[in-house]
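Contributing new records

If you add data, match the layout below exactly. Sequence lines come first and carry their own label; structure lines follow with theirs. Keep one chain per record. Anything else will be rejected by the validation script.
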Amino acid sequence: MESVSLQRPACKWQVLSLFLLCGWGCVCGQIRYSVVEESEVGTVVGNVAWDLGLKLEELPGRRLRLGSEESLRHFAVHLDSGTLVVSQQLDRERLCGAAASCVLSVQVVTENPLQLFRLEVEILDLNDNSPSFPTAHRTLRIAESATVAARFPLESAQDPDVGTNAVGSYQLSPNSHFSLDVKQQQDGKLFPELVLEHALDREEQPELQLVLTAVDGGSPARSGTAQITVLVLDVNDNVPTFDRATYKVQVPENSPVGALLLRLNASDPDEGPNGETQYSFGVHTSDSVRRHFALDPRSGEVRVSGALDFEESSFYEIYVRAHDRGVPEMEGHCILQVEVEDANDNPPEVLLTSLLNPVPEDTPPETVVGLFNVRDRDSGTNGDVSLEISPDVPFTIRSLQNHFSLVTRESLDRESTSQYVVELIAQDGGSPALTMTLTLLLNISDVNDNPPHFLQPFYDAFLPENNPPGSLLCTVSASDPDDGDNSRLVYSIESGQVQGAPTSSFVHINPDNGNLYAQRTFDFELLQVLPVSVAVRDSGSPPLHANVTVYIFVLDQNDHPPTILQPASDSDILAPQRVPLSAPPGYLVTKVTAVDADAGHNAWLSYRLLPQSTDPSLFHVSLYTGEVRTARALQDTDVAAQQLIVQVTDNGNPPLSTTVTITVALEEGALEETYKPRDFLASVKEKPDLTLYLIIALAAVSTVALATVTLLAARCLWRRGRAADSPCCCCWLSESPSRDFFKHSSPKLQLSSDGTLKYMEVTLRPTDSQSQCYSTCFSPGSDRSDFTFLRPCPPPATLPRETGAFLPATGTLRDPGQESGDWRSGAELGTNGEAAARSPGVPRPRPTASAPNNEWERRALSAASERGGHRSPAAHPARMPRAGKAGRSLGLPRVFSFCFFLHSSSAQIRYSIPEELTRGAFVGNIAKDLGTDVAKLAAANLQVLSDSDSQYFSVNVNTGVIMVSERIDREQLCGQNARCFLHLKLAIENPVEFYRIEVEILDINDNPPEFPSDEVSLSIYELASLGARFPIQPAQDSDVGTNTLQTYHLSANENFNLNVKAHTDGGKFPELVLERALDRELRAFHHLVLTAEDGGSPPQSSKTHITIQVLDANDNHPVFDRPSYGARLVENSPLGTLVVKLNATDVDEGPNGDIRYSLSSHNSAALRQIFVIDEQTGEIRVQGNLDFEEATVYEIEVEAKDMGSPTMEEHCSVVVEITDVNDNAPEVILTSFSSSLSEDAPPGTVVAVIHVRDRDSGEQGKVQCHVSPDLPFQLRKDYEHQYSLLTSTHLDREHVAYYNVTVSASDLGSPPLSHHTILPIALADVNDNAPQFEQASYEVLVAENNPVGSVLVTVSAADPDSEQNSRLSYSILRAGGTDPGLDPTRYLSIHPTSGQVSAKLPFDYEQTSYLQFHVEVSDGGSPALRNRTLVHIFIVDQNDNAPRVHFPRAGEDSATQFRISPSTAPPALITKVVAIDADSGRNAWLSYHLVEATDPGLFSVALRSGEIRITRALQETDASAHELLVVIRDAGEPPLSTAVTLVVLVEEKGPEALQGSEARAADGGGLPTITLYLIVSLVLISTVSLVGLAALGVRCLRRGSAPANQGCCVESVNTLQPPPSHIFGHLHYEPKQGDTVMGVQVTATAPPAPRYRSCFSPVSDISEFMFVKPSAGPAGANPPDPTLCSEVSSGACSPA
């Protein structure tokens, strides 16, 4: 549906005519004029008045005019002459485009009556346009391989002119390659095409410039040109060409890798990838060349990539291939000949002929153990070789020409050196000299020449008593430096007696691993130490042996309870102990003495009184001494007979105990015991004053605490410093010699005392590997001594051992009489078992492994360790294998013992034999050739020695004939060398002689030529030029000479010939030569057979099959099935409708045969929008709208291109005919239309003149129109295609102001199509409605004191008319009356357009509370219409007046006074405050408030009435004058107030008020006593100080005891002499007067054990165990020698 909105104003004449016309006239004739385009303005087209039959004098009255805007644009009518003239210049191309006929429709309208005439003016074409090409300069890219007669479409020229003035012909500038062909389509259009007449060659002419000229058929003719540039695209039709066919270069051998030989250069006249050359090795290039040389593919640089060796090859021939990157690629070839210059670069070689390995260690000197040969591949002095041997090995070299022997120089010892690294250094005579080193690893085989050796001189085993039989005691271990069976050891126990029983009944040993087991259960009380002699022997022949002593120490277990010795009783009842009643506390009643059969901790006893005693609190038993003393003074109430039960407990785990019952009788009598304990309980003294004692005690405790803390801190700091500096033991050790026995022993300390220390018994016991030593402090006073704690020390450093024990000392000794020899270990015995006597105190020498004596030996040892995995023989000798076949190949070593006297014959014998002889074939008779008797030769022990690993020959010593012993393959031995030799050496004994024999191996034709592959595939471009060569990999023949490859043969074929190239070294390389051009489309594959044949007799040959694939070239263009196609489509076919499917074929393959379809450039842009072609399938489909009315026929130009490089193309045309359907809806054209209509227009008024048309034809082109019957409009048909729209009823704009009239036009097609056009008609207004107010009256509330200019109210009126008729104006009318104060204009103003009423003055409610006036409104019509409304304004009161006091009245600075009597009783009225407020309502409500008063509680003010009354009776203390401040406040928002001051005077005076005030001031009390605060502060400070000191002390003590690195006492040296040496000895020491501390230490060093030291005090009541500390010396220092330190010091226990 189309909506038309016309905004142009209606002309006056048109409006009037529409009102006046009542009918139309119809003209049936059709008038047509013609005029040439570009005619000048004013050119007469025709006389309209004459042709329409109108008179000239009637024309002004009839108002002759043009009826449409299109007519007015181009033409005009002259009323004076009635002619139609051109009003502006006409351009036919702009008006009608390329249409063959250009006709403009002109409408002529006349009035009185109204008539419409239709005229046609044809615009004739003028040749005013030249042909022009869409592109002035076009570039065509054509491959140089394009075939002759190929066509290349060009763009058509465009000429806006039509007919004969359009493009008529094309012309092409002269050229030697192209001609022009012009095609004509059905619509007459011409399309030019270039036709290739002569083949293109880019290398000769890469670009052509052509000029295409288009000429039209006008007179005079016009033309246009286009510049065409033809770029000839390159085709890879040229091969790369080298500067030279052969290059020669010389290079020294051993040139560094990367050395540049030369840079090759090949050129290719092609461009792009076709001309980019890359280099590579040809197929004829051998693998050796590829290993030694590298070719840069881009630059062509040939460099050395491997080591060049003149001896390996002195000449290289390199085949180089240069190929481009075209498709397919083309290639060229050249040969590079490289000559290698010789240099001295070959070191000499040492060849091992025979070697005896391993060598027995008892081999005598001058024994031959190996034979060697030396050679050097260089010649002259560079080939002279000398051989040297590494020094410091027990071997030497004996030489004879190039033969050398390795001879022993001195005796060998496998245990000293089990392996020798012998380096043989060969040096040639070159400059500089080259050397070669051959390293031999000679193993020395073992001989049983070393006895076993125990790892320790003796062993200690520790076994708890009561052990189960079969317990493992220890493991003895021995080593034997020999190897194999010589080092396989067997352990056994030597016979002996212990306590009358054989030793084997006590222990058993595993003969394989040395584990020693217990055979029975041991009892410590019966046997403490069991010495066992263990023997070990090896498995050599004869066997060697050794022995060692194992000391088994039985450890005590707690299996005996204590035994009471005192009090002793022969009967069951013990005699009572009598104690006088006057015995003081601490009185010694008796002493309980007990012993324990166990030892050590298990024998430590403690005593305690059991609670079952009669009165346990009366007596006290010393913990360690067993002394029973009274704990307090005896009383009369105590029981006379006391029974004490004392329990004696040992220190075992678990502990065992015994009890004894003692009866004590309390009797009267004198004190018999005079013993006074030195420090047990102090005697009771008279107590002094308690307060004084407390003060003294407090001062003393504070002083002692301070001193203790100071001392403790200093001691902690001192200990920390000592701990960081020295980890020494707790006692200073005396410098005494070390003792072997006590290195494995620990003391047993037993004290026997009956109250004081009588003696000390030290029993020596061996310690195990985990034994510990202790340092303990005891006191002779046993009443308070105890064992504080025990801590292990770290193990001491290993000390040197000596065989002595104790030196003689004063005291009682018990010597068991053991001989010092009993302590010897097996290592001290000789190899035959004899004991090597050593005196006590003389250290036993320890065997040490000697270091290598020189650098050669060190190198040999390190090399042996790395290669063989063996260690140095000084540490762990490795086992060597026995002599094997290698050693026996030379016979006995003594065969070569006289090699020092070798002499040689200089004779050289040579034989020649063919290869592949059978085993046993005759070579030569050595006896005959040497001139030696066969019998003599057999007695000389002839042997054949070969330089190679295989023994190809053998000698029959009985006949002297050399025979073949293994198959001989010459190709395997010598490869491609021209001559092949095998070298033999004959060795003869007695005397030793060597003969050198050369055997030449002759070649036989036993190998046919062989190609690397049975199948060879080649790919050759079908456009390859004739004479092109294609190398084939040559065949290889292992034979040499005439037996090698000689010639090649090629099977018969039409395209290729065979060319054979000869190499300088005799090699032959085949090449295929193209003799006839290839065509892939005729034959894609060629199968050839290449035969290689050698020159043997008979000759041998082999074949390879060559498959040649012809690569496609893009030399064929696509071909369509037909040159043109036809199709028929219905217009408006849906999108995607298939038009036709094209088919083009290309006989090429791959991308060259892959076709892509596209629309040619000849097709217009409009056609490309309608049709689309699938580039893959060639399907043409509809993609736009097909309209029969626009075009009935389409001619589509299609091109098919392949994907080759360059592309080839072909063209065809497709003619598409369009069939018409009813697809065009009718069109409604407004000839005349007025969109605005007055609402008072009468019925029948013409609104619009409508012209309808339909582009379809026949019934489908006939149109009918109608409008909706609900509208006040109707249609009237004037003639066939013209209608008039008329009003049918009266109109009212206020009811409906706008109409959308839909004009529907329908054709008569099937189905019919219709078109709807909406005509918007707006009714013009007429002032027929007066304004109306929204309200009949307005009421407004306005607050007084309003601001000037504020809007009070807005009055609003509405007028249904529009525009000027609805434009309203407001005004204020004065109300009735003559009072000027009532004039509203004095107070108010109104805005004339918005109706806003504003205040000119502020209102005052107290003056005016109400106002009334009229507002009048009038519209802008003509005449104007008016209306009125009434406005009421009510003034609202505001709180703008403060209260005003009417009574009491007072001046501004004075107050009103009132007098009252002192006897006035409440609630007497004193006065009343009266105030008024000018405001009204709440704003006038007043309240009274008493704000200030001299005595607020004496007076009150009524809130609403303002009455002031007295609230209580007056008193004498009240003031005589009272000032009252009363505030009067209204209820407004915000409230306003007024204050008034009243003074009330009391006439009579009362009592003094001042006295009452003083009475109320009382004393508030004083502060607390300062003494109390001071006391609390002192207590707090004291408490904090005490807690801090205690914490510091605890921390310091913990730090001091944890890392105990200091000793417990300072000891003097040599106070006691060490006791003599023995096994089971006791040291009895009688303490001297003044001795307080005795320290005993026993240190064991092997095996390492922790040590402890204990310090005891002789006074038992004050002794304590200080601490235990390790006795190891500082790290890195030599430990002290003595193993036993027994010292006595007279000082008190103190830290060392």
